[in-house]
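Table 4 source record.
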Amino acid sequence: MSIELDFPAVLERWPNFLGGAVLTLELAFFATVSGALLGTLVAVGRGAHSRSIARISKVYVEAIRNTPLLVQIFLVYFGLASVGLKLSAFTVAVVALTINVGAYTAEIMRAGFEAIPRGQIEAAEGLALTRFQIYWHIILLPAVEKVYPALTSQFVLLMLASSVCSQISAEELTAVANYIQSDTYRAFETYIIVAVLYILLSLVMRAGFWGLGLFLFPRRRQLGTPL
């Protein structure tokens, strides 16, 4: 038994692959930015003095981390439609991915916050720094620096997980692959190409986060500490 591969028949659809890859990166970008903001706010909420805010934040994190992403996408997709909000598949995908990655980002950021020595905060208070200055310079930036590798890995995983958005007709890379393989009847070749593209996208994202880390954390660059 032999397998005859016909990559040219699939590769001639390269504009479709390119469009799907670009849309995948766009999904990852918007969900990463909004998810990072949401996760940071939730992490702050989990440590809030208000019990109600802390409990709501915890319930959100536990609910998202214990349900599948695909179910969350369907809940957002059909939930918004049921209340009369008809959004594009791309917008729904961004919203769902943001909600999902926000919960994981919150736990990562919370670990970063807890790694900040209490003595540093007390010293900042002794220097009469404002609450904003303490949160920004003493807590937030050092916390992000500590957990930056974990955050970048989570955001790359988010990009890979965006493949399930094909179930709501978001025309990202996996959705494009499904269309091409059904049209060419070359499923094996199609998904080999898609796998290679996902690897390339992951490398591009990691390189981008590495460069961003060098910009955000010059102290590590000066010390030669890897990000």
